[in-house]
Amino acid sequence: MVAAGSPATDGPRIVIVGAGGWVFPLELCRDLLAFPALAASALVLHDLDLAAADRTAAHLRRMIADAGLPARVGVTDDLATALTGADVVITVFQVGGVEAYALDVEIPREYGIDQTVGDTLGPGGVFRGLRSVEALRVVAEAMLERCLEAWLLNYVNPMAINCWATDLLGVRVVGLCHSVQGTSELLARELGVPHEEVTFDCAGVNHTAWFTTFRRGDEDLLPRIREVMVARHVDRTLPLLPRSEDPYESVERVRTELMMLTGYFHTESSHHASEYWAWFRRSPELTAAYLDRRWDYLEICRSADAGTSNEQIVETARREGLRHGGEYAAPIVDSLVTGTRRVIYGNVRNGGSIENLPADACVEVACAVDANGVRPVRYGSLPSACAALNTVQITVQRLAVEAAMTGDRDLVHAAVALDPLTSALLTLPQIHEMTDRMLEAESRWLPQFADGAGVRW
Questions:
Q1: Catalytic residue check, 233
Q2: Which of 151, 318, 345, 372, by CA, is between 20 and 30 Å from 254?
Q3: Does the pLDDT of residue 6 top 60, yes or no?
Q4: CA distance 426 to 269
Q5: In sequence order, what DSSP letters do the residues of 424-442 get, joined into one string?
Q6: Is the pTM value of this prediction over 0.90?
Q7: What's the pLDDT tens digit per position in 93-133?
């Protein structure tokens, strides 16, 4: 059971690390305050950019005042102060911001590796992981000193690499992503069935977890998923459903082709999933054959056009009341406080939940949540082809985790070299050159590599 976290409130002390970001930190605070048991929380906003955290705090205080809640808001750029006595810590930062992220994407593009996002696998995912693990190490060490029993709810990508490393650092961590919820809604929409009537089992690794059951009551919907998705997105014998102008919405040919390979649909968009394998992005022409729209997340970040704003969030909450937006963080905290039992999908140490994936890997599975914490539910064995694709990803993740925690440059090269798309496009000398350039360009955010550990021949 989570104890009250501040003498000034009756609710838990919840710390958001990286609270100066646009939109998402404020949305998380809104979600938390939508639960009655959390309405008196002490919300501590931490960011190295104090002005940015103050900006979020100003909007949050308006939201609290509009709702007439007893919650209190604190702001600090000192991590130790923020974490002292915390019950729950939520990480939402991006180390290096857009400046570092641009290097993740633009240097590989010079070598022909076009990543739509670059935050999961590939050169971009590996390097974002190297930066993020070092920052999470600082958070974890402070938590072990200042709030030993607190839970860390991580939203920082690459999810599997970051949660794997943070678990090794000794804190209680679960990684949260909305891809399971979002894809289950997409499949229900494709089939024309109400999402609230659907049940499913899903397991794998983050951004590639597999829906191995999908039911409406006693009806097994997997055969219909296979039939409808192939007809609509590969054979084109069924019309596409109406879509918005959002370029993120594309035909789902990539995911459908992966389903035709494995038998099962997985949890990441076709845009993002196309980065993970050599079959879809070896040339611009091949990519265009699989995706009918270009979607470039770096361009979106540079435009600072998030489609919404902190002001809009406050105004919507004032008009409509505080409503939970669907992310898992708030219901997890509510369960920790009230003991209400829930099942969520989280990224946790496998341990044996998925029998045919490594026990030490970070997997995405159903987890039971209550006052005692977050525990993975035993899944069993994935279908063999699904497990095989996940194992390829876990190999890259394992090397990236070890590289991030030891500062071994050779392991960085190995992680990048074993990425499926990179290995299909580049020779080993090219991979070494590209990786060394990225290590040099991003050195200010990678102190663990400052002594040049490892040997480059």
A1: no
A2: 345
A3: no
A4: 25
A5: HH--HHHHHHHHHHHHHHT
A6: yes
A7: 999 999 999 999 999 999 999 999 999 999 999 999 999 99
